[in-house]
Amino acid sequence: MSTLKKILLLALFSITLMGCNDPESAAAEAAQLRAEQHPERTYVGEHNYYIMESSEHAAFGRKKELKVMYQDFPRYFVEKAKEWPKEDLNDASSYDLPRFQFAWANSSSEDEYESGLKIWSMKTDGTDLRLVTDATIDLTEVRNLTRSPNNRYVAWAGSGGHKSVYDLKTGKVTVVQKTTSPLDMLWSEDSRYLYHERYRNRYSRWDSETGEISEIDFDIETSAISYGGNRIVVYPFGVTVFDSITNEKKLLIDVDETLPFKEARMTIRSIDPTGRYAWGSNPSFGFFFDIEKGTVKQMVDDFVPAQILGKDAHYSALSKMTYVTIVDRVEDKVWSWRAFSHGAMSGEGILYNGLANDGLWFKGSK
Q1: Cα(325)–Cα(236) distance, integer angstroms
Q2: Looking at residue 24, what is its pLDDT?
Q3: Count of C-beta atoms within a 10 Å radius of residue 22
Q4: Angle at 145 between CA 182 and CA 111, to 5 degrees
Q5: How far apart are CA 333 and CA 65, in angstroms?
Q6: Does residue 62 have a pLDDT over 80?
């Protein structure tokens, strides 16, 4: 063999060895191997993946007959949250549908980070799971969540009602309430103020621009919305509309005052993102409020509870996100699917970005 051929072969062998030792090349080979071994999985990072599974039959109880819909939804297997994509305000593709937000510990492992509570979000069709913030890792429980209308701020109340706000733009966490307090929180329409119940029957606002906390002279409920210059509140016994600036009461819609206390008090309450419709129910009755018309419809049977209510009351959902249940209230359809393979939820899910896609929760809906 000529000296030149020996040199060329040696160079080729060296390049091959370098390729084998290249971390990027090794990672690509490992990824390809995983894909070949598990073609049903879509990997997100090295340790996480999701599979597509059909939705299931939903037993919704005696209240309403619904048509069960079957289609594929993602089921997520998240072992390493650190590898999972974070929600990004600059990624417009994440906001082309309304989104659910919830507190979830993605693992039961001994790893303190992975087993700790974090706030997550996903589109209403189950896609685009994102890690919102891991700032709640030291909490044992998240009891209430809310998102500002501009999607930038996430507020949560932990065990005992301690309240914090996470800024998706800056990554900063602000503690708004350190001591024990009630859970209720509500954002102003311009996303500047977080109104909250600071002590029993004492209310304050946190200013996202200055960080100042000052007292306010009106009460707050989480089952409320600030929209169109109004604050629309669903109380346990009815709906009240206030002017957001003057706090003047503009409309009051009560449930039937002749009902006994337990049958009149709404234990489940929700409101649509524009404040046009509201829902309330208890074991005896359902109450559907058309706030624009100033009416309430009382139902004994043939109704679907709405823990989360979408725009124009077209869709609703139950608030437990481990097993997602969505109802098309216009066409009487229901979808139910298991969104996660393991992990534990804390508190209830909420809806935000609710006006995207004209409030419709599935692409292509009418």
Answers
A1: 24
A2: 65
A3: 12
A4: 110
A5: 9
A6: no
